[in-house]
Amino acid sequence: MSTPVVWLLGDQDAGALVGASLQSATGVAALAWAVLSAPRGPSGADAADEAHRTGAAEARDGGRAQSGVRRPRGRGGRRARAVRTGSATATGPDSVANSGIEPG
Q1: Given CB 3.0 to 4.6 Å as the disulfide criterion, which of 18, 49, 59, 84 pairs with 95?
Q2: Whole-prediction pTM value?
Q3: Rounded distance, CA 91 to CA 57, Å?
């Protein structure tokens, strides 16, 4: 910020003025981008784990099929919601399928 001020208050030839203007505009644009791209919505305990309109999932031979919400350990305090999830099918020993909400 000090360089454009020195250029404008010192020798004001065309090159210095253009350079100061570009540097200032870049700083303002970067600040605007940072403010406008900041994440919005709930975070932390207010956030929810959600699944909406998922497709079908199938697990075989010890696999895991998940078309709903599987919550990682330690995140049990958050809200969870599963809406119109697809079917989940498990075939074979030790296979697991879930189309709703599964605690971690």
Answers
A1: 59
A2: 0.45
A3: 11
Residue type (1 letter), 26: T
List, for residues 71-88, the tens digit of each pLDDT value.
Answer: 776 556 677 888 888 888
DSSP string of 15-84, one letter each residue: HHHHHHHHHHHHHHHHHHHHHHTS--S--GGG-EEEEES---EEEETT-EEESSEEPPTT-TTSEEEEES
The token pair that represents 57 in the structure block: 């999932």
- Residue 57, φ and ψ in degrees, nearest 5: -135, 145
CB distance 78 to 49 below 8 Å: yes
Distance, CA of 28 to CA of 42 (rounded, Å): 28
Which pairs from 94-98 meet CB under 8 Å and 24+ separation? 94/61, 94/62, 95/59, 95/60, 95/61, 95/62, 95/63, 95/64, 95/65, 96/59, 96/63, 96/64, 96/65, 97/57, 97/58, 97/59, 97/64, 97/65, 97/66, 98/65, 98/66, 98/67, 98/68, 98/70
